[in-house]
Amino acid sequence: MKHDSSQNSIRKIHHILADILTDYYQGASSEKVLDYHERDQLVGEFYRESPPAEGIGLAETLAEFRNGILAKSVKTWHPLFMNQMFPGASYPAVLGDCLTSLMNTTLATWEVAPVATIIERNVSEWMAGVLGLPEGSSGIFLPGSSLANLVALTVARNQRLGDRLRQTGLHGRAPAAIVCSQNSHYSIANAANILGIGENHLVRVRTNDCNEMLVDDLVRKVREATAQGIRPFAVVATAGSTVTGCMDPISDIADVCERFDMHLHVDAAFGGAMTFVPEGKKRLHGIERADSVCWDAHKSLHAPLTSTALLFPNADVLKDCFDSGANYLFHPHAGIPPETEDLGRYTPLCGKRFDALKLWILWNAYGTDYFRDFMADRVRLSERFHEMLAKDPDFQPSHKPCTPLQCFRFLPPALSAGNPDEIDRFHRAVREEIIHRGMAFFNIARLNGRDHFRTVLINPLTTLDDLRRLLEDIRSIGQKYLQSGNSGHDSVVPEN
Ligand SMILES: Cc1ncc(COP(=O)(O)O)c(C=O)c1O
Predict the structure, then answer these.
(1) 142 lines ligand 1 (CB under 6 A)
(2) Residue 496 pLDDT
């Protein structure tokens, strides 16, 4: 099979592609969230010992993709996909992602990506602007907030732990610590590991029932570490925590950081989009004092994975950390306006994808009003869902949502006095059956020591009726288990 990019063949393929996209978006509500198959069935169908010696052509390959790979994958754009913080991806942004691949450039250097460099800088500034960061704030795009957290903490370490750390490393220095809440994202622990700080020097601050950091405990832990000769140099505040979506008190944490000379990094991977609604803006108060902020457009702004901005009041701190002087690639010379500099000097990445384009296309096509209306609508949906749960005697919401994310438990009277571990198992079994039947896809998470259902409510297609239906499905499957448990078994729940 030969490479063929003739006009006719590209047009033919585009018709197929148009059908795939149209069916995916139009059919989102009518299909199951997942056509469930057991692991060994999937491995049997998709795993091939060796690559094909002869190709079957692109049209046939796309048919295999559509009928096999896509058909048997989770439909993350489905209104009842609420499992993770990325609710599928919106159409303009998906096109943006394809067009990024079409351009196939790296933003390492201005000379091969001049316009892309301007757009990335510009979109970073828009994001900093809507968050209310100081004038002049901007940053870079990275593939995900896990990496953005690592990069932000690398800047913090190099700036706060003394001169020439970049050259000398941590050798011979006093131990240092990163401070975060008990419920911060696991990428912070990974960053402590990768940066040579060590996970044992991750100071975990206690949280309230909604997973928000307790500032008294923060001060106590910073003092304790300092008294032991450990230098806490950075605090990570989470704006939109992974399990509950709640916000750490950023302004109070900023005060503590100032007092103890620590870098404040705000992980707003999920909660950044709350800046578009007045109540969210209030909760994000203090973010303007952060030394760094990350925000995923691939979460609440539903750009496809990945599209993450890492923002600083002065992005030059990135250059201090990563400018490598690789002279085969970077050819800086005097008089270059700063906004046209090689972005490769601001990041550890050499192949730096144009991940800002999908957000630019979405923003340009729909405008800020779209984000504002959409976030206001999702906040309202989560409030209504909370009311629905609170009124229903069979359900118990864990907290009043701060962002569009709600955890809850199914606790009908027959179950509420049961063994707590058994109730946890029951929740896991009910969720699994719902997923296997393709009815909905939501998560389960540990909160205050017990398993809770966790629904992320930022998918623009999810309606209150969908959520009502979800509760009815949980109720009927739950009742089925309860009845089988009541008829002669010790446990009300089958082991899974
Ligand atoms: C609070 C928080 N920070 C960071 C991340 C990691 O983001 P990413 O998936 O973009 O690496 C997540 C992921 O859900 C998160 O919830």
Answers:
(1) no
(2) 37
Structure confidence at residue 88 (pLDDT): 75
Among protein residues, the one with the nearest Cα to ligand 1's atom 7 is: 145
d(CA 149, CA 131): 18
Point out the ligand 1 atom lying closest to the alpha carbon of residue 146: 11
CA of 193 to the centre of ligand 1 (A): 17
Quick check: 120 and 310 in contact, CB under 8 A? no
Using an 8 Å Cβ cutoff, are 187 and 146 in contact?
yes
**25-71 pLDDT, tens digit each:** 888 777 899 999 999 999 999 999 999 999 999 999 999 999 999 99
Atom of ligand 1 nearest to the CA of 240: 1
Domains of the chain in sequence order: 104-366 (3.40.640.10), 369-483 (3.90.1150.170)
**Residue 269 CA to ligand 1 centre (angstroms):** 6
3-state class of 138 per DSSP? strand
CB of 211 sitting under 6 A from ligand 1: no
The average confidence (pLDDT) of the chain is 94
CA distances from 31 to 24, 78, 119, 470 (A): 10, 8, 37, 15
Answer yes or no: is the C-beta of 151 below 6 A from any ligand 1 atom. Answer: no
| Closest listed residue to residue 346, CA positions, set 112, 160, 69, 108 | 108
Q: Tell me the backbone φ, ψ of residue 327, rounded to 5 degrees.
A: -80, -10
